[in-house]
Amino acid sequence: MAKTLPETAAIARRGLMLVLSSPSGAGKTTLSRRLLEQDKGVKLSVSVTTRKIRPGEVDGRDYTFIDRRRFDALVEKDELLEWAEVFDNYYGTPAKPVMDALAQGRDVLFDIDWQGTQQLREKARGDLVAVFVLPPSIPELERRLKSRAQDDYETIHRRMAKAADEMSHWAEYDYVVINRDLDQAFADVKAVLAAERLKRERQPGLSDFVRGLQAKL
Ligand code: 5GP
Questions:
Q1: Residue from 17, 210, 214, 211 nearest 111 by CA
Q2: What is the widest separation between alpha-carbon atoms in the chain?
Q3: DSSP letter (8 states) at residue 16
Q4: pLDDT for residue 9 is more than 80
């Protein structure tokens, strides 16, 4: 008699925290957007920030834009999982949406810098998968920053200077993707996610699943 196999999709799993960091202009935002479009199992952690909204950005989608007083209140109430000062502005990750998503078995994507990644590693080492995206070269990074045309000359200049500092943290990450070609870099990020999802410890429902298989032998 044919045995009915247990439903694999029903295996309980814990979500993971996928961090993408890079110097501005290395392609991280494009990679994040693609991943969110193509993989409905991934939810973006929407950061709060004190920086001004840029043309094309949507409040509540790209960031939640708040003033310094509200930011300080969130820090005071311990409602941020991590926070950092970047380019004279403050950025932070609200804790509750992340915790809720992980508990529901959803993966959470973070577009945060190395300072935030270090804090997440201290708080949630087992849940963290940290990917650093590198540009193929400095002239290419400069070209990408200029072609954005969102920022003024001085900001671009400061970002280039900061890129060197950010890049020095590459070795603190679990994976490094060089963005020579966007399609290849995206395939690399997807491969990391696919492998990390299969990790035994991320599938707490596995023992029950295997027991179910064994019971039917
Ligand atoms: P931008 O202002 O260009 O959107 O972001 C500037 C930098 O801040 C980027 O490197 C981005 O990854 C980082 N960032 C954005 N949100 C957060 C956050 O919540 N926490 C930390 N630590 N960095 C963030």
A1: 17
A2: 73
A3: -
A4: no
Residue with CA closest to ligand 1 atom 15: 112
The count of other CB atoms within 10 Å of the CB of residue 89 is 13
Q: Which of 19, 59, 90, 112 to mutate to test the pocket of ligand 1 (most atoms within 8 A of CB)?
A: 112
- For 142-183, give the DSSP string: HHHHHHH--S-HHHHHHHHHHHHHHHTTGGGSSEEEE-SSHH
Nearest-atom index, ligand 1, CA of 87 = 6
The answer to whether the CB of 134 falls within 8 A of the CB of 22 is: yes
pLDDT, tens digit, for every residue of 76-87?
999 999 999 988
pLDDT at 199: 93
Q: How far apart are the first and last CA of the chain?
A: 12
User: Any idea which of 52-56, 139-143, 173-177 has the lowest mean pLDDT?
Assistant: 139-143
Q: Domains of the chain (ranges plus CATH)?
A: 17-195 (3.40.50.300)
Dihedral (CA of 149, 155, 158, 162) sign: negative
Instruction: Report CA(103)–ligand 1 centroid distance (Å).
Output: 25
Task: Please tell me the residue having the least CA distance from ligand 1 atom 21.
Answer: 112
**Count of CA atoms in the C-beta half-sphere (13 A) of 60:** 0
Helices (H) and strands (E) in the chain, counts: 8, 9
